[in-house]
């Protein structure tokens, strides 16, 4: 990979993984507009590792408490708010994980077109705007129930449609259920950890099975650039969320989706 290709894809993955603008909608642009070749699975694994490191670092205290509480419940039957949150994250992860395994081939075959991505970018952007405008925002993570976790997890299944945005649809569901913006975003980010880990591991297994040579220099830069950009993006997004809301991201999605449809048609 040349430097421009490596830089652009790393930054796209890092910046768009966690904000509600759809990373798949952005990752299609360089290849469509600039004719760049596929970056390969090794590089995909690298940028997934970078974004995983970023979200773990950003939420290290919460993650340590949740993991410790969950292990305490599993090993010693000591229930706590942290163990409960750990089980809720697992529950919320299951629907998308199962749907991804069952429908992976159909998704790859029928939903990767620019027309689908552009349409999903617009439609789910408008749904996000409606949820942010109409949501009560009077519930925080400490008041989350099993029903909340399951419904947000079911909504995450829609992220299998390219252009939906995993973070966008989970925040949308949480806002619809009455959560405040920071709680919606925080739970979305915590939910991302097992899915990013699973996606990166799956790609790594495919890479090993195929025996493709990895360009270790490219992978190292991909990890570093996606890590730094994702970490900064998480911090800036959370810091500005209550002040700016979701509207700027909705407007951006409408512009991006319209452009993708224009190119597709």
Strand content: under 5%
- What is the arithmetic mean of pLDDT? 90
Count of extended strands: 0
How many strands, what sense, and barrel or not for the largest sheet? none
Number of domains: 1
Which descriptors apply to this entry?
11 helices, mainly alpha, 265 residues
Protein model, in words:
It comes from Phytopseudomonas punonensis. This protein has 265 residues and is mostly helical. It has one domain (3-7, 40-264). 80% of the residues lie in helices and 0% in strands. It has helices spanning 3-16, 23-34, 41-58, 60-76, 81-110, 114-134, 146-156, 166-176, 181-210, 216-244, 247-264. Helix 3 (41-58) packs antiparallel against helix 9 (181-210), helix 6 packs parallel to helix 8 (166-176) and helix 8 (166-176) runs antiparallel to helix 9. The longest helix has 30 residues, at 81-110. The mean pLDDT is 90.
Summarize the structure.
With 265 residues, the protein is mainly alpha-helical. The chain contains 11 helices and no strands. It has helices at 3-16, 23-34, 41-58, 60-76, 81-110, 114-134, 146-156, 166-176, 181-210, 216-244, 247-264.
Element layout with pairings:
Blueprint: H1 3-16, H2 23-34, H3 41-58, H4 60-76, H5 81-110, H6 114-134, H7 146-156, H8 166-176, H9 181-210, H10 216-244, H11 247-264
